From TrEMBL:
Belongs to the Gfa family. SUPFAM superfamilies: Mss4-like. PANTHER family: CENP-V_GFA DOMAIN-CONTAINING PROTEIN-RELATED, GFA DOMAIN-CONTAINING PROTEIN. Keywords: Lyase, Metal-binding, Zinc. This is CENP-V/GFA domain-containing protein. Residues 8-123 form the CENP-V/GFA domain. PROSITE patterns: CENP_V_GFA, PROKAR_LIPOPROTEIN. One of its GO terms (molecular function) is carbon-sulfur lyase activity.
Length: 159
């Protein structure tokens, strides 16, 4: 994986909505829950959990869609309806961005997978940590540490 230089750019399918990310994600994940299967029209969703202050919509105005509130809001391109990012109520410091929108493919590599209890039987992905549900708070803090170390190693290997 090449070392990424920030900020990175991303866009929806039609290109009318553009986003930037100024700092590395704090965690990447795949979610196998039924909701993500339906919203992505695919086997699982991909997430890069990012610090809110590092993430910006720089072009276009996203609209809410999918399952709306109260615990989370999903945002889409108003034109092509690409699922762009998700904000979880009470976790205002973070935003869950769909990492396949970014130009850098390596941002989409899932470090953990969640909700494997609802996983499609043929799916197997190289996530380093698996959860049948979602990680609890203690697990979550450890995962952030582990993920940061993985990122640091990738950076230093390249000198
Ligand atoms: Zn679009
Ligand atoms: Zn899910």
């Amino acid at each position: 994986m090449d070392k990424i230089s920030y900020p990175v750019k991303g866009s929806c399918r039609c290109g009318k909505l553009e986003i930037t990310l100024a700092a590395p994600p704090v965690l990447t994940a795949a979610c196998h829950c039924r909701g993500c299967q339906k919203m992505s029209s695919s086997a699982f969703s991909l997430t890069a959990m990012c610090k809110s202050d590092s993430f910006r919509v720089v072009r276009g105005t996203p609209v809410k869609g999918g399952a709306q509130g109260p615990e989370l809001d999903h945002f889409f391109c108003p034109d092509c309806k690409t699922w762009m990012f998700t904000r979880i109520t009470g976790m205002d410091d973070f935003v869950n961005v769909r990492p396949t929108l970014f130009d850098q493919k390596s941002l989409a590599t899932p470090f953990i997978e969640t909700m494997t209890s609802e996983k499609l039987p043929w799916v197997s992905i190289p996530a380093q940590h698996s959860f049948t549900g979602f990680p609890d708070v203690d697990d979550f803090m450890k995962l952030l540490d582990d993920f940061r170390q993985t990122q640091d190693q990738q950076g230093s290997r390249r000198g």
